[in-house]
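REQUEST FORM: STRUCTURE PREDICTION
Request ID: SP-0412
Submitted by: Lab K.M.
Chain count: 1
Length (residues): 314
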Amino acid sequence: MDFYTPPSPENWQGRKSGSQLYLHEKVKLSNLDDNEPLANAYGILGYAGDIGVARNLGRVGAAAGPASIRKIMATLSNHFDNRVNIHDFGDLACAKDDQLEALHDKITHAVARLLSNGIKPILLGGGHDLAYAHYNGLRKFLPQGKIGIINFDAHFDLRQVDGKRNSGTPFWQIAQEEKEDFYYLALGIQEESNNRELFAFAEATNTEFLLNIDFCLGNWATIAAEITDFIQRVEHVYITVDLDGFSSAYAPGVSAPSPLGFSPETALKSMELICSSGKLLSVDIVELNPAFDQDNATARLAARLAYYLMKYWV
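STATUS: Completed
RESULT:
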């Protein structure tokens, strides 16, 4: 069970300039098995799976998310200089429900390897169960140290594992394993989408959060203070973006859309602040479901988020 598919040139097509004016002309296709250090490099890795979404009784289709995001990224203009490298390392996925846990182990090892080679990982999903495997990769790379999780999301994803892990359980799993070293800030939480038990568990684990009604540009001073205070108390930061946190006006193509989500402007300004800290370690963008997208709006949003993060990540 290898679970690995090398990157496809079909995902990186577009207008040809001959002078790398577009990302598809800059991105290099690399094999995940290559164990080569790379300088000033971003590494795109897809999680082409939604078994965790199905286990969580969500709408499946996120397995097609990574390819959809790449195809939009390919057409974006390239404003990165020659010192910056962008590599696509292909996809990890599994076909059967009982393979998910083994796939998560593969993702963990892949993330740790990318980091060990000096590569900044950008993982594209796929279901949000990716976060558990992703975080374990960070912890494998850094056995010691405080890793803070900043989750842009409508949901806490703190559901207790009841039988099998799923897209609603990743941060509960991390909380169980990290204990006193669980540092979690959730931005955009919707009260209507998280039951009382989830709020109680968030309080018990010192989870910090801002509700969607407070995560808006009009409240920027509070948002900036919350993010800054959180970053100051950790040594490294992991950003995870669940696209269902955005308003469905911007992100209709997700498993659980909501008209009351946050705006791209608020998220982008928050991400720029996080990037400026110099503590950002790794990123994922998850839950794009192309089957429910409209004119690729959600894929376009995800591609721009990845682009923006590469632009400001120091």
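NOTES: Residues 100-116 form the longest helix (17 residues).
Reviewed by: T.R.
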